[in-house]
Amino acid sequence: MPLRSLLLAPAALSLAACASGTSTPGGGAPAPTTAQVNVAGSGTATALGSVVNVNEGQRNTVQAAPDAAYAALIAAYETVGIPLSYKDDARRRAGNIGYKARRQAGKVPMRFAVDCGEDLSGPKADSYEITMSVESSVGAGETPGTSTLLTVVNASGKPVSFSGAEVTCTTKGEIERRLQKAVAETLGGK
Questions:
Q1: Please, what is the angle between helix 174-188 and helix 66-80, to 10°?
Q2: How many whole angstroms separate alpha carbon 171 and alpha carbon 57?
Q3: What are the strands, taking DSSP E only, across 49-103?
Protein backbone atom coordinates (compact mmCIF):
# COMPACT_ATOMS: atom_id res chain seq x y z
CA MET A 1 0.00 0.00 0.00
CA PRO A 2 1.50 3.41 -0.92
CA LEU A 3 2.58 5.70 1.93
CA ARG A 4 -0.03 8.33 0.96
CA SER A 5 -2.83 5.76 1.36
CA LEU A 6 -1.52 4.72 4.77
CA LEU A 7 -1.41 8.35 5.90
CA LEU A 8 -4.92 9.11 4.61
CA ALA A 9 -6.62 6.02 6.07
CA PRO A 10 -6.92 7.29 9.70
CA ALA A 11 -8.20 10.67 8.54
CA ALA A 12 -10.72 8.99 6.25
CA LEU A 13 -12.02 6.92 9.13
CA SER A 14 -12.35 9.94 11.39
CA LEU A 15 -14.36 11.78 8.76
CA ALA A 16 -16.61 8.83 7.99
CA ALA A 17 -19.06 10.15 10.56
CA CYS A 18 -19.68 13.22 8.36
CA ALA A 19 -22.70 12.19 6.35
CA SER A 20 -25.94 13.50 5.01
CA GLY A 21 -28.69 14.19 7.51
CA THR A 22 -31.65 16.40 8.26
CA SER A 23 -32.89 18.57 11.06
CA THR A 24 -34.67 17.03 13.98
CA PRO A 25 -38.25 18.30 14.28
CA GLY A 26 -38.41 17.37 17.95
CA GLY A 27 -35.61 19.75 18.88
CA GLY A 28 -32.33 17.81 18.65
CA ALA A 29 -29.30 19.51 17.20
CA PRO A 30 -29.48 19.72 13.43
CA ALA A 31 -27.18 17.36 11.60
CA PRO A 32 -24.93 18.63 8.84
CA THR A 33 -26.37 17.87 5.42
CA THR A 34 -23.19 17.76 3.41
CA ALA A 35 -19.58 17.01 4.10
CA GLN A 36 -17.22 17.45 1.19
CA VAL A 37 -13.50 16.98 1.55
CA ASN A 38 -11.07 17.78 -1.25
CA VAL A 39 -7.32 17.64 -1.61
CA ALA A 40 -6.01 20.57 -3.58
CA GLY A 41 -4.83 19.49 -7.01
CA SER A 42 -6.03 15.89 -6.70
CA GLY A 43 -9.40 16.32 -8.41
CA THR A 44 -10.95 13.76 -6.06
CA ALA A 45 -12.69 13.84 -2.71
CA THR A 46 -10.44 12.40 -0.01
CA ALA A 47 -9.81 12.75 3.70
CA LEU A 48 -7.74 15.94 3.74
CA GLY A 49 -8.61 19.50 2.80
CA SER A 50 -11.60 21.70 3.49
CA VAL A 51 -14.80 20.45 5.04
CA VAL A 52 -18.09 22.14 4.13
CA ASN A 53 -21.10 21.66 6.39
CA VAL A 54 -24.51 22.93 5.42
CA ASN A 55 -26.99 23.26 8.27
CA GLU A 56 -30.62 22.97 7.19
CA GLY A 57 -31.82 24.21 10.57
CA GLN A 58 -34.72 23.25 12.78
CA ARG A 59 -38.25 23.37 11.45
CA ASN A 60 -41.48 23.06 13.37
CA THR A 61 -45.17 23.71 12.83
CA VAL A 62 -47.15 26.14 14.95
CA GLN A 63 -50.91 26.56 15.24
CA ALA A 64 -51.25 30.11 13.88
CA ALA A 65 -51.56 31.99 10.62
CA PRO A 66 -48.19 33.07 9.15
CA ASP A 67 -48.59 36.77 10.06
CA ALA A 68 -49.35 35.93 13.71
CA ALA A 69 -46.47 33.43 13.84
CA TYR A 70 -44.09 36.03 12.36
CA ALA A 71 -45.12 38.62 14.97
CA ALA A 72 -44.48 36.00 17.68
CA LEU A 73 -41.08 35.23 16.13
CA ILE A 74 -40.01 38.88 16.29
CA ALA A 75 -40.98 38.94 19.99
CA ALA A 76 -39.14 35.62 20.52
CA TYR A 77 -35.80 37.14 19.48
CA GLU A 78 -36.22 39.76 22.20
CA THR A 79 -37.20 37.08 24.73
CA VAL A 80 -34.10 35.02 23.89
CA GLY A 81 -31.93 38.16 23.98
CA ILE A 82 -30.59 38.06 20.43
CA PRO A 83 -30.90 41.47 18.78
CA LEU A 84 -32.24 41.58 15.23
CA SER A 85 -29.88 42.95 12.59
CA TYR A 86 -32.50 42.62 9.85
CA LYS A 87 -36.24 42.14 9.40
CA ASP A 88 -37.96 41.42 6.10
CA ASP A 89 -41.67 41.71 6.90
CA ALA A 90 -42.76 41.01 3.32
CA ARG A 91 -40.97 37.64 3.30
CA ARG A 92 -41.48 37.01 7.04
CA ARG A 93 -37.74 36.61 7.64
CA ALA A 94 -35.64 38.00 10.47
CA GLY A 95 -32.38 37.36 12.23
CA ASN A 96 -28.90 38.50 13.03
CA ILE A 97 -25.99 37.92 10.67
CA GLY A 98 -22.52 38.58 12.05
CA TYR A 99 -23.64 38.50 15.68
CA LYS A 100 -20.55 38.49 17.88
CA ALA A 101 -20.71 37.20 21.43
CA ARG A 102 -18.62 35.73 24.22
CA ARG A 103 -19.80 33.33 26.90
CA GLN A 104 -23.49 33.86 26.04
CA ALA A 105 -25.61 34.18 22.90
CA GLY A 106 -28.29 36.45 24.28
CA LYS A 107 -29.61 34.55 27.30
CA VAL A 108 -28.21 31.19 26.14
CA PRO A 109 -24.86 30.12 27.66
CA MET A 110 -22.49 29.64 24.73
CA ARG A 111 -21.55 26.08 25.79
CA PHE A 112 -25.22 25.11 25.21
CA ALA A 113 -25.55 27.14 22.00
CA VAL A 114 -22.59 25.89 19.93
CA ASP A 115 -19.86 23.27 19.92
CA CYS A 116 -16.42 24.52 18.86
CA GLY A 117 -14.53 21.55 20.29
CA GLU A 118 -12.81 21.14 23.63
CA ASP A 119 -9.37 21.57 25.09
CA LEU A 120 -7.92 20.88 28.54
CA SER A 121 -9.92 23.73 30.08
CA GLY A 122 -13.26 22.50 28.68
CA PRO A 123 -15.56 23.64 25.86
CA LYS A 124 -13.84 26.18 23.61
CA ALA A 125 -17.17 27.97 23.15
CA ASP A 126 -16.82 29.24 26.75
CA SER A 127 -13.65 31.21 25.98
CA TYR A 128 -13.80 31.90 22.23
CA GLU A 129 -15.25 34.94 20.54
CA ILE A 130 -18.12 33.50 18.55
CA THR A 131 -19.48 35.00 15.35
CA MET A 132 -22.84 33.59 14.42
CA SER A 133 -25.70 33.87 12.02
CA VAL A 134 -29.15 33.25 13.50
CA GLU A 135 -31.84 33.41 10.83
CA SER A 136 -35.53 32.52 11.00
CA SER A 137 -38.39 32.47 8.54
CA VAL A 138 -42.11 31.77 8.73
CA GLY A 139 -44.10 30.15 5.93
CA ALA A 140 -47.58 28.79 5.47
CA GLY A 141 -48.08 25.35 6.99
CA GLU A 142 -49.45 22.30 5.23
CA THR A 143 -52.90 22.74 6.76
CA PRO A 144 -54.96 25.93 7.06
CA GLY A 145 -54.28 27.92 10.22
CA THR A 146 -50.75 26.56 10.65
CA SER A 147 -47.33 27.98 9.93
CA THR A 148 -43.86 26.54 9.57
CA LEU A 149 -41.04 28.14 11.56
CA LEU A 150 -37.48 27.53 10.34
CA THR A 151 -34.41 28.68 12.26
CA VAL A 152 -30.84 28.18 11.05
CA VAL A 153 -27.79 28.84 13.24
CA ASN A 154 -24.25 28.83 11.84
CA ALA A 155 -21.21 29.88 13.85
CA SER A 156 -17.45 30.12 13.98
CA GLY A 157 -15.12 30.96 16.83
CA LYS A 158 -11.59 32.04 17.52
CA PRO A 159 -9.45 32.36 20.62
CA VAL A 160 -9.47 35.72 22.36
CA SER A 161 -6.42 35.45 24.60
CA PHE A 162 -3.98 34.20 21.94
CA SER A 163 -3.77 34.10 18.19
CA GLY A 164 -5.27 31.08 16.57
CA ALA A 165 -7.18 29.98 13.54
CA GLU A 166 -10.92 30.48 13.35
CA VAL A 167 -12.82 27.21 13.71
CA THR A 168 -16.26 26.22 12.50
CA CYS A 169 -18.68 25.60 15.35
CA THR A 170 -21.82 23.49 15.13
CA THR A 171 -25.12 24.39 16.68
CA LYS A 172 -26.36 22.38 19.62
CA GLY A 173 -29.94 23.40 18.88
CA GLU A 174 -30.58 25.37 22.09
CA ILE A 175 -31.06 28.77 20.42
CA GLU A 176 -33.49 27.20 17.97
CA ARG A 177 -35.40 25.44 20.80
CA ARG A 178 -35.65 28.62 22.86
CA LEU A 179 -36.93 30.63 19.90
CA GLN A 180 -39.51 27.92 19.15
CA LYS A 181 -40.59 27.81 22.81
CA ALA A 182 -40.94 31.61 22.97
CA VAL A 183 -43.04 31.61 19.78
CA ALA A 184 -45.28 28.85 21.18
CA GLU A 185 -45.71 30.67 24.50
CA THR A 186 -46.61 33.93 22.75
CA LEU A 187 -49.11 32.21 20.51
CA GLY A 188 -50.53 30.15 23.37
CA GLY A 189 -51.07 33.29 25.40
CA LYS A 190 -53.57 34.69 22.90
A1: 120
A2: 9
A3: 50-51, 58-62, 86-88, 93-102
